[in-house]
Amino acid sequence: MICALAPNAAILIFGRIVSGLGAAFEVPMSLVLLTLAYPDSRERAHALGVWASCNALAFIIGPMLGGWLVDTIGWRSIFYVILPVCGAAIVLTYTAINESAEPKGRQLDLPGQVLAVIGLSAFAFAVIEAPHWRWTSPLIMAIAGIAVTALLLFVWVEARTTGPLLPLEFLRQRVFSATLAVAGLMTFGMYALLFIMPLYFQVTRGATPLMAGLELLPLPVSFFVLSQLVGHLTNRMGPRVIMTTGMTFMGAGAMALACVGESTNLLLVELALSVVGIGLGLNTAPVNGVAVAALPPERSGTASGVLNTARMVGATLGVAILGAIFAAHAGQNVIAASGFMSGLRAALIGSGIAELTGAAIALAFIQRDSLHAKK
Q1: Can you give the residue range of the structural domain that contains 331?
Q2: What is the CATH number of the domain that holds 341?
Q3: Which of 169, 319, 342, 367 is surrounded by the most beta carbons within 10 Å?
Q4: What are 34-58's pLDDT values in tens digits?
Q5: Residue 351 above 60 pLDDT?
């Protein structure tokens, strides 16, 4: 509602912050609820596949509906349309979900929260604004110093806090740490791709917002289809093969998109998007399942929360870093930029490298039985 009524950009950004707080409560808890509802790992693998397919449905509905609303009614309508969805979610939560909180031994790690937010925000700001202010400018150097200091203090505080936001001993578990890395690298490359490809369709191919949403469809459709099958595939072959294959497909698709030109046959572009979607469908559910299974059942909330944080950190840094690489070539005004395609290629090559690095990590550290081990 704040975004829909926003009179200026500052209020719009504030509304997005409020929405982000809601998502931070909601998304990790959805994984916890699945863990509680499906204690058997094989059944949970199928449930996580359905959970992932709901993400794919959002990718299908969002760009098309959003593009149509922007074209016909205006940008504020994309926020109004969310309100009845939120209302339905509240009703379902209160009528279908039982309370399962276990507050014993838990407390709010406010210093850790504050330091994490300061460190990550400062780092993202420095990377995004550095092309404009110059990397060596006093402002960027100061903000980068704040980011490094805050993140080092975060590690120091977490090591000395009872009930920390991020229990550092969990990071010593190789499977859990590897899963966090895979999740972060997955969104690092994916969100940058989702940021750049709609611009490609609109700037170089002249598509409207609605048409750009339709041209992105092969990605979420293949994501949705594979998500329905991934539970069976994971139970049969184990998460190591599925996660490695998924990240490899995402990397290969991003590299293929880095090779497109202004007049590339649209079918080839759609094929590359389909490859990315197949990889995303293969990887999303297993990476969540492995993270939750790596920690004791009573810490499933911690596992899903930390994993979701890794995903969002990867997404933020991906848009910041690869977006900065893109802007360094394309300029600040991408619509009038002559270097758009060189920026696209540089950013998507970075996206592909991130995904292929994640594939190597999954191959090296994830085991066939990682969905079953609870240590």
Answers
A1: 2-106+172-365
A2: 1.20.1250.20
A3: 319
A4: 777 887 777 777 787 788 778 777 8
A5: yes
